[in-house]
Amino acid sequence: MAAVGATEREILETFEAARKAADAAGAEEESPEAARCVDALRRLRGAPVTTSALVSTQVGKRLRYLTKHPQSSIKATASDLLGYWKRVVIEEDKKNGTPQNGKSNSTKVRVEKVELMKVERASPRAVVNNNDRDVSVMKYTGGKVEKFSDDELRTQSVKVEKVQKEVSELSSVENPSPDQSGPPRLTSIVKCNDAHRDKFRGILADAFSRVSEETRKDDREEVRNMIDEVEACDPFRVAVVVECAVFQKLGSSNGPNKARYRSLLFNLKAGNNTDFRRRVLLGQVEPERLADLTPSEMASDTRKLQNKKIEEKALFDCERAGAPKATTDQFKCGRCGQRKTTYYQLQTRSADEPMTTFVTCVNCNNHWKFC
Questions:
Q1: What is the CATH number of the domain that holds 339?
Q2: What is the mean pLDDT of residues 233-248?
Q3: In which domain, by residue range, is 69 found?
Q4: Which in 49, 111, 233, 357 has the greatest CB count within 10 A?
């Protein structure tokens, strides 16, 4: 297609407006940006579209990103629009697939077991052209060009020498060849005209931008194997989504929750906490949960292992230092009347005084002591 028509241009402009509004909205509920995005998607829903327009603009592929948006209204509207476009494509395919004059108008081409073809003659080279559903083969032999029609090909002895993959059915509508996969990567953060929020977004973007290099240089092989997944993420887009989710729960970073903002930023920026940054970038930690995480939950894997060892050692030392306990039925609990008790004795007074006995009821955990 040499140039995009008026209808395709309107579709592209409206979709771009919806995408930019969705990026600015983030996870905020009932924001002006979300309302603008929903309005643009509804305009696309009411606009007349054809299969050729959807194929040339590739908006169907790019719309899938908005169907996973954290904003519920944007997600629902985008899903409805995608379903409507699919129905348009299916109905148009049915109309074009009706046989007329003994010939099919279907644009679908079935390709089976095709990779390398060889004509059994002297040094032939076969080229398959598919223009307006007419299939022909041109053979180049010593400067002479011979062209065979579809009927003539049936009489040629063609040998398929090497077959590696098999394509069952190709459709330019259902499986188009996209120019890009998913939404385009942002080159900078999306600002919201709030100095504190924009600063927070910039710090997050800087932290997430370092994850790729940190993953590549990590000593652990299982971490280095995640490099493809890390490089597929957009650090600027993740920074905007995380900031919106945290702002929705904690409010302004200059307000009463300033300490929690500082704790979150400290753990995301820390040079020895690459694991936490990577988990947030990959979506393993949901943005909505970040505001509620404790410092121990935000710690790196190495730090968590060290904390666990410290806790186990402290628990062992505490149990070892405790006074030995014995079980007896000589004491009756004054609370529940049971005689299942444990006790131990300590010299709490001078040496010439009797020891103090500490008793605990096993049934109700009542404690008492006597001398």
A1: 2.20.25.10
A2: 90
A3: 6-91
A4: 49
